[in-house]
Design goal:
Elements: H1 2-9, H2 15-29, H3 34-58, H4 61-67, H5 71-91, H6 93-99, H7 102-112, H8 119-127, H9 132-157, H10 167-198, H11 200-224, H12 227-230, H13 233-260, H14 265-276, H15 280-290, H16 296-325
Helix pairs in contact: 2-11, 3-10, 3-11, 4-9, 5-7, 5-9, 5-13, 5-14, 7-16, 8-9, 8-14, 8-16, 9-10, 9-14, 10-15, 11-15, 11-16, 13-14, 13-16, 14-16, 15-16
Length: 326
């Protein structure tokens, strides 16, 4: 009985997922509009800038340089993140457009073009007894490169959609809102890096708080535009299934490829977890910059769902890897 309860607890949503659901519920009942929505939008922009500034200050250049020697592993992780996922997203189009709305498919395609997560990739790699230093380097590099690669991929494959903003305006916004604060954080790390490292819980709150602000403002506008009239329970379940299938394919292919290329078991764990993740922390702010606000709620929904699915599935997988190594 206790073993069954322990197995079920792995699939229990974490506190942040519950906060996301609560935020969506509040936005559904009490959506902001007018001047309040403008004020929330301005606060959100500042919070996102602070988020990327702190990420820049936290990222250790020494760790990146130390891990870059394992270039084959990093190249495979980046190929999974920025090549395999987008290809699968494009291949899913014929099926996805028959079972999902066009806006949800745009969200799914956008999800496929996001960088990997940092915290959960490293934590799951450690749990699965993988190569943690390589995970730190791969996940950090993916997040940094994603600031450039994700907008380029979106411009090439999604920007034709009606939900996208002007390409040049989107790139400029990415530079000003995300890249400039990130670089500023890196430049100031010499002076504030130790303080940031000592106050990591603060970074977590900024991380989660900025995401919740974007989710609230996005879903407020989406609710005003009739989101819950467009999104049925059947459509929501279908989206969950599509996200689960996408994750399963990437997990299987990354595991198969890492074994075929002769990586060690520790590296294999790192490749699987770093190559299969998509970052909610980067994805939601990027979506706010890249897409028109009227479509934002539907577009970030696949990212939110995939985030929870990947955490639950990979937590179980990490424990299986750990038992295999034990």
């Amino acid at each position: 009985m206790s073993a069954a309860l322990s197995s079920l607890s792995r699939f229990k949503p974490d506190s942040f997922t519950l906060a996301l659901l609560t935020t969506v519920a509040i936005a559904s009942v009490l959506p902001c509009s007018g001047g309040v929505a403008v004020a929330f939008g301005n606060v959100t922009t500042v919070a996102i800038g602070l988020l990327f500034f702190l990420h820049g200050a936290k990222l250790s250049r020494e760790a990146i340089v130390a891990g870059m020697t394992h270039w084959r592993l990093h190249l495979l992780v980046l190929c999974c993140t920025f090549v395999l996922f987008p290809i699968l997203g494009l291949l899913f189009k014929p099926i996805a457009l028959t079972v999902l709305t066009p806006e949800l498919y745009i969200g799914l395609l956008f999800l496929c073009m996001l960088p990997s997560t940092v915290q959960s990739s490293i934590a799951l790699t450690a749990m699965g007894r993988g190569n943690v230093p390589a995970a730190v380097c791969s996940a950090s590099a993916s997040n940094f490169l994603g600031i450039f690669i994700t907008p380029l991929l979106v411009s090439a494959f999604v920007i034709q959609g009606h939900a996208a903003r002007d390409p040049m305006a989107a790139v400029l916004s990415i530079v000003l809102q995300l890249l400039v604060p990130f670089i500023a954080g890196q430049l100031l790390r010499r002076w504030i890096g130790n303080w940031v490292d000592r106050h990591k819980p603060m970074l977590k709150y900024v991380d989660q708080g900025s995401i919740l602000l974007v989710v609230y403002t996005a879903f407020s506008e989406a609710v005003t535009e009739g989101l819950w009239h467009k999104l049925s329970a059947t459509l929501l379940v279908t989206l969950v299934v599509v996200c689960a299938v996408l994750l399963a394919i990437v997990l299987a292919l990354s595991l198969y490829t890492s074994r075929k290329l002769g990586f060690s078991r520790e590296d294999e764990v790192t490749i699987v977890f770093c190559g299969s993740k998509k970052s909610l922390a980067s994805g939601v702010p990027m979506a706010k910059v890249l897409f028109a606000s009227s479509s934002l709620g539907m577009i970030i929904l696949p990212v939110m769902l995939f985030h929870q699915i990947q955490l639950m599935v990979c937590a179980v997988l990490a424990q299986k890897f750990a038992r295999r190594e034990g």
